[in-house]
């Protein structure tokens, strides 16, 4: 949800940067006497694609580490493996949560920060996925396939202009995004104090109507939020945004894919209710 919450602020920064480039020549004196102005490389959609693949790859590799540790711990009863996976998951949660909060106020254009988020989320994803897989065989593959299909489905809808971004759409999505983030944070804090708010059903439990509505609603938001990502990336590339903003686009797509996977994994587990 990180990139969606800062779509407008990123555009404003890109506009400011673009305006600075237009007036840069004035600082170098009259024609024939000025030195060569610095050249600012602009981002392209290919830049974003390459960086997104790298971040998703880092997430996948990190996930394999904790997935293997948890799977081994469950099968053999090795507490050391489970302890290591738990430690990595806690560290990953703290790092990724910190980056998400940071990204709400400033675009993530630093590759080290982007990779820290990707790897941190990978540690958490792997451990949780292994637990779900141990209980519901095949659910992880189904969630991965569903994530890929939804992503490319939304990309096709945007590319063929079946779905378009608009000021109203942006306001609704950003507002809903902050609401969802607040809901998740309240649920997380309550959980730390041992309070169950009943917003999400346990894996394999029997979800009530409210829990179904929340799970489906958040999953739909995660899917439609890609429209904001695609629009921001296309707009930035077409308007000469500095190349460093390719990391912001890649971070947004990676965060969106991870968030979508989380929610699809939960939603699929609801269908396994006993």
UniProtKB/TrEMBL annotation:
The chain crosses the membrane at residues 48-70, 82-105, 112-132, 138-160, 172-197, 209-233, 245-264. The keyword Chaperone does not apply. Coiled coil: none annotated. It holds the Pfam family BaxI_1. The keyword Transmembrane helix applies. It comes from the Bacteria. Keywords: Membrane, Transmembrane, Transmembrane helix. This is Putative YccA/Bax inhibitor family protein.
